[in-house]
Amino acid sequence: MKDWEKQFKPNAKIWGLYLTDAEEEARENAEVWKNGLDSLLIFAGLFAGIVSSFVTGAGSGSSGSQQALPSDLWIKGFGATSLLVTLFSAIMGGLAKAWSLKFITASSKREAKDAYERRILDKRAKRWKLERIIKFIPLLIQTAALLFAAGFAVQSYVDNQLIGQLTIILASIGLGVYLVATVIPVFYSPSPFGTPLSDLFITAKELFLGSSDNDEEMDAWTEQDIEGELADIWLNKLITSPKVLQVDEAIAELTRQWSSLQLKWQKYFGSSNTPNIIVRRLREHMVLGFHNKFEEYEELCYHFQALLQLTHYYESSQEHDMSSLLPLRRALTDALKLWDLYIVECFSRSC
Q1: C-beta of residue 278 within 8 angstroms of C-beta of residue 310
Q2: Which of 52, 65, 131, 266 has the most crowded CB, counting CB atoms within 10 A?
Q3: 303 with 281: CB under 8 angstroms?
Q4: Digits of tens for pLDDT over the chain (351 positions)?
Q5: Phi (first) and psi of residue 280, to 5 degrees
């Protein structure tokens, strides 16, 4: 048995709970990406046909002359570039769908190693900015549309100056609206507006001003890395989860595994908000109760035992002064008072 398996039970129920949530979130993200990419590929196919027809017919009025007019070169240049960018976006869209399939890979097992691998997969997707890259692909189509609009405006101006001027004005208004929608989320992040170009500006802003959310290097993983990731899942994904089933199971597993945890991991949980979460769940259990009395008694025992273990950790640790121990003792005292009232109520109901 490896060292990390002695501290983080491989077949504990909490890893399955984490995997269920993480894989569901990955599937939802991949489904959103897939729908967007499917729409993009359909539009790219239709738009490519329109652009190719435009390029073929552009400047046809001067085809009989010995030398092409400068306007013809601009029109064909804009049109050809737009067509190439459209085709490239279609290729990138197909590749992105394959990337998203790797992201939603599900494990048939529900053990600690599988939870670790799922966590690493999510972190790598975040590190390589997978979501932003997929969001960048529609920018290619938008660029192609902008190039096509420029070529169409020149063609319209050559054919008829009045219609050309009107086309340029409308295209300029559309470009202005697009730029405003792009810039707003860069300076006001809660804004619901945004374009694929916004993500590039936000990334550039983070690189220039610095970001506190830099991902660590994940090239060589050791057993200590595995322990750290599993502890992170345990605390930040399960104990602090909004789902009470996950919270209760994570606290119960903490009680069962406490004696096998190294001192640094006891400190990790003891220095977090775990004690307050345990007390909160104790209050909720005593107020709401259970349909199954055996489960009710078992859960309360796990929670009290976890609270006592954390209290003992604080009392025996020399790194904490008495002031940091007082809130935990007060919480334990309140929980014990609630327990007395709970026992009295149970006795009165049985009578």
Answers
A1: yes
A2: 266
A3: yes
A4: 677 888 888 889 999 999 999 999 989 888 988 898 999 999 999 999 999 988 887 755 544 555 667 888 888 899 999 999 999 999 999 999 888 888 887 778 889 989 998 998 888 888 888 888 888 899 899 999 999 999 999 999 888 889 989 999 998 999 999 899 888 888 886 677 788 888 778 877 777 776 544 444 444 456 677 888 899 999 899 999 989 889 999 999 999 999 888 888 888 888 888 888 888 888 787 776 655 556 677 888 888 888 888 877 777 765 655 565 666 667 667 767 766 666 655 555 554
A5: -60, -45
- In this structure, what token pair is assigned to residue 260? 């096998």
Q: How far is CA 247 from the centre of its chain?
A: 21
Where helices occur in 233-321 by DSSP H, the ranges are 244-257, 263-270, 274-288, 293-316
**Of the candidates 137, 106, 136, which has an alpha carbon nearest to the alpha carbon of residue 121?**
106
**Under 8 Å CB-to-CB from 300, ≥6 apart: which residues?**
282, 285, 286, 339
d(CA 266, CA 240) in angstroms, rounded, equals: 17
How far apart CA 241 and CA 277 sit, in angstroms, is: 10
Which phi and psi (to 5°) does residue 210 adopt? 90, 150
